[in-house]
Amino acid sequence: MASSAAANLEDVPSVNLMTELLRRMKCSSKPDKRLILIGPPGSGKGTQSPIIKDEYCLCHLATGDMLRAAVAAKTPLGIKAKEAMDKGELVSDDLVVGIIDEAMKKPSCQKGFILDGFPRTVVQAEKLDEMLQKQGAKIDKVLNFAIDDAILEERITGRWIHPSSGRTYHTKFAPPKVPGVDDVTGEPLIQRKDDTAAVLKSRLEAFHRQTEPVIGYYKNKGAVAELHAEKSPKDVTAEVQKVLSS
């Protein structure tokens, strides 16, 4: 048996083996972190989460993806979630917390996790805390990507895309050479349906109404770190690292 295990490792290119060993060594010294990222659409959570994930060896728990994976894998919770979705109902908070609970047991989540897109309401935050408490754990930090609505509008409504290549432009921050036209092919650029002022306005209203109270809930527990999300991605990364190293 030992020889076949050794053979398995021999088949791994030495570069990959070294990378994996170095990753394990680096990760073993990292403190555990259980983080929640909260911020309106366009505040930069998606830019920062992979950086935080790699730096602290955390797993990224995006609740939408996890629900889809549980449904596809036909786990007991996934089957229940599918029943709700098929009826056009929202998946219950208890189910989502159960799916997070399951996901946290994966080896990649050993050092902790980043939760993104959940909790969206105070009730969800309470249920999440209850579940963590049973495991003797708690949320270490809630990173609040604070940013003015007007800045978000400029960021989001200025985004244009070349559909076939996925190249992205921004009327102010990264404009194409010719307005409305892809630099490489000369084909017209389009705007995503979600990137209009009207859609953004309704998403922001939902965020302020539902999710801002969650920030208040965690502030009372002393877990919130405010980030200046209007700054450049590099500056925000520096702020995040400062917060998480303290």
TrEMBL record:
Per its record, the protein catalyses: AMP + ATP = 2 ADP
What's any one GO cellular component for it?
A: mitochondrion
Q: What EC numbers are recorded for this enzyme?
A: 2.7.4.3
Enzyme class label: transferase
Gene3D superfamilies the record matches: P-loop containing nucleotide triphosphate hydrolases (3.40.50.300)
Q: Which UniProt keywords apply?
A: Kinase, Nucleotide-binding, Transferase
> What SUPFAM superfamilies does this protein's entry cite?
P-loop containing nucleoside triphosphate hydrolases
Query: Where in the numbering of this chain does the Adenylate kinase active site lid domain appear?
Result: 159-194
Q: Name one GO molecular function term.
A: AMP kinase activity
Please name the NCBIfam families in this protein's record: adk (TIGR01351), PRK00279.1-2 (NF001380), PRK00279.1-3 (NF001381)
What is the documented function of this protein?
Catalyzes the reversible transfer of the terminal phosphate group between ATP and AMP. Plays an important role in cellular energy homeostasis and in adenine nucleotide metabolism.
Return the similarity comment: Belongs to the adenylate kinase family.
Quaternary structure (record): Monomer.
Q: What is this protein called?
A: adenylate kinase
Query: What species does this protein belong to?
Result: Populus trichocarpa (Western balsam poplar)
